[in-house]
Amino acid sequence: MCGAIYNVNDHPALPGILSESGYTQEEIEDILGNIVNPKRELRPTDRVLSFVPTKEGRQVMSAVWWLKLDKQTLKPDTQWASFNCQSRRILTSKMHTIPPRSYRAVVFARGFFEWQPIYPGGRLYTALTPDEQKKPPKPIAKHRYLIHDPGKIMLLAAMCKHWVGPEGQAVVSTGVITLPPHPDFLDIHYKSFPLELQQNELDRWLDKSIPHEEFEPLFKLTDYRRSLEAVPVNEPAFEPIGDPVPLIPGAKASND
Q1: Residues pairing with 127 in the sheet
Q2: Angle (nearest 5°) at CA 51 between 36 and 245
């Protein structure tokens, strides 16, 4: 995770989430009126709608989807692939302690996209030999999947940094936190799966006074946090072209 984010900007559930998070109707209308990215698909280095802790409290704002920026230009530092942050390194990586330090944040998403690789012989990842899985061959095709909970917003756990440029300009950057891949998800994406938060976890997650160590159980999750669907879709309309694959918590363990 993740190849791309399905933009949440016009999702009908967004005003309700903002209201539950303490925003007034006037503030919600102002936030929605200032969402400037009309793209349906957001890629790394694009701006994503985020919940970010600030000196004035948590705020919804646009953030660059790339955690490490160049201090002079405030553009993504592409020497570091920092659009994702591995959960196992949140507590140890220098990326999160060097100035500006990282804080916990949230990225709003309608869902996210992955591209399922098809390997020679029409094989999926789990059909590869153990040696091939260590270094997969070049795919002969890739199929796009939308991973979502129909009608719901996903709250993707993230890390963020606050940057101030040479002329005082302020920019927020963010990287989505990723877990190891779920066994049921290997054939779609064998590298990782995003950490999703629940609505009742936001207050503590966005509280800067709580150390990252308090969330270590989340960083060690090995299962989905709720039922989702992985739907094969076409391009560029993102319309379903096949049956959804259910992603059910505990499904692999129950099948063993």
Answers
A1: none
A2: 85
